[in-house]
Sequence to fold (345 residues):
Amino acid sequence: MAETLDPINPKFTGEREFQPDPGERDPETQERLYPYLAKISPGLIDAVNLAIKLKRPLLLEGEPGCGKTKLAKAIAYEFSKRSQTKWPYKAWYIKSTDQAKNGLYCYDAVRRLYDAQLVATDPQEKDKIKARLNDPSHTAYIKWEAIGEAFKASQNKQRMIVLIDEIDKADTDFPNDLLLELEEKKLVVRETGEEICAKEDYAPIILITSNAQKKLSDAFLRRCLYHYIEFPKRSELEKIIIARFGEDWSDSLLNLALNRFLAIRKQMTEDKGDFGKKISISELIDWIAALRFKSTQAKIEELLNQRKIPYVSCLLKSKEDDQKYSEIAPDDSDDAIDEDDDDDV
Fold:
């Protein structure tokens, strides 16, 4: 049954009942969806709800593959499911060449020039072209991007969820170029001088992710709330795998797979420290998926008990890592990370 979800101050719960079933399809994009286990990261749900209340962007950091990018869509899914109304969601995937304007709007100056030339030569389209050219907002020549679309939606009392993904990929000045939009919730269309202001009560819910490849400026950080998603503990990894693939593996087989994975990760952590490339959750999921291609659990167990790690290409992404970590034997896994057998999530 749908509930009345206050768009001005919605509350994210992270409850499993409001997340998709494993492999469910997005009705619009046909993308496969999986449940997001927000409760696995202590403090994450509180950080999300505080960002919503304060109308501040939430900056998420953590190792690649830890789930930063998926959170925004999980929030949109929960709000949509609880209210039985589609909550708008937009993602801006940052590229190294991006400028701040790329997430605001795109102005088609070429089309406007074409119209200006065509108006004198095409009598059938003359009135339509003149209307486009004389429109003070230049509506026909502007395509709103993630932030611009969210600001426009707020004017219609829609609160959009916006993901700005991997902001550290861009130039070091890029975050500072967004300060006006993040602080004052407004943007200026340079070509027309028009100001687009988000309605305060319906300002977009903005989540920003970073892999900490570049230091973000103090001015930018002051405008954000912050949460670091830690690498999950062993019992939490079990929950992630079960949520993704179901419970058709025996406990002993799941333990054996995690022993191999965590033994490799522990050794990589000792060798590389906090900043070196280590195997991630997304790589664990790929590896488990590859193992599941085998028809029986007995065959999977046989593979996992071999000295050479099966489907090593899912886990180790360099020749050096392959040579160094691909033959960590199951017997060496007794010391694998297992920090929280009794902890509640």
In short: The mean pLDDT is 89. DSSP finds twelve helices and eleven strands in the chain. The chain has two domains: 16-104+145-229, 234-335.
